[in-house]
Amino acid sequence: MSRIGKAPIPVPSNVQVAVDGGTVTVKGPKGELSHELPEKISVRQDGDQLLVERVDDERRSRSLHGLTRTLVGNMVVGVSEGFRKELEIIGVGYRATAKGPGELELALGFSHPVNVDAPAGITFEVPSATRIGIVGIDKQKVGQVAADIRAIRKPEPYKGKGIRYVDERVIRKAGKTGK
Q1: Confidence of residue 145 (pLDDT cuts 50, 70, 90)
Q2: Residue 51 pLDDT more than 90?
Q3: To which H or E segment does residue 19 belong?
């Protein structure tokens, strides 16, 4: 049995969960998320926790068991606490400015500023000119937006300039040796 799949999902008191056939809907103080369950996977509520179960021990059912448990668990955490990714900008003249909660302007050494619009459910925070915070309730969407922003100017290995995650280490290369 899946070690992750058999673990129960604790549901906080301020979160409501509704299981309707093949759909799980989770409502909390930060918003609402829903997920379509794969066939042969079911979710049932047992008091203040959720249990994810599978019908049989086929290979596909086993592989989807832990995945479904993790996705539903992330929904519960997202609507109660939310998710956050931090990016750091390194480079002379590189900076970020917020033009509102859903729009970001980046100066990254290009001949023009780069504008980034946030998808629905995502907000940007710019505490300083070299830090960007991406906040939302959907973990996958927060991570994808952070990866898209990082891809605009990846950290290069010689000087380390670019956009990186706050906890990311860039492995530096040695430059040319002079005579």
Answers
A1: very high
A2: yes
A3: strand 16-20
Contact 1, 69 (CB under 8 A): no
Please, which residues bridge with residue 6 across strands?
none
End-to-end CA distance of the chain: 63
Give Rg (Cα) of the chain: 21
> pLDDT digits over 162-179, tens only?
999 999 999 999 888 876
Quote the tokens at residue 143. 């991570």
Q: What sections of the chain are H helices per DSSP?
A: 59-80, 139-152
State which amino acid sits at residue 126. V
Name 113's Cβ contacts closer than 8 Å, sequence gap at least 6.
Answer: 105, 106, 107
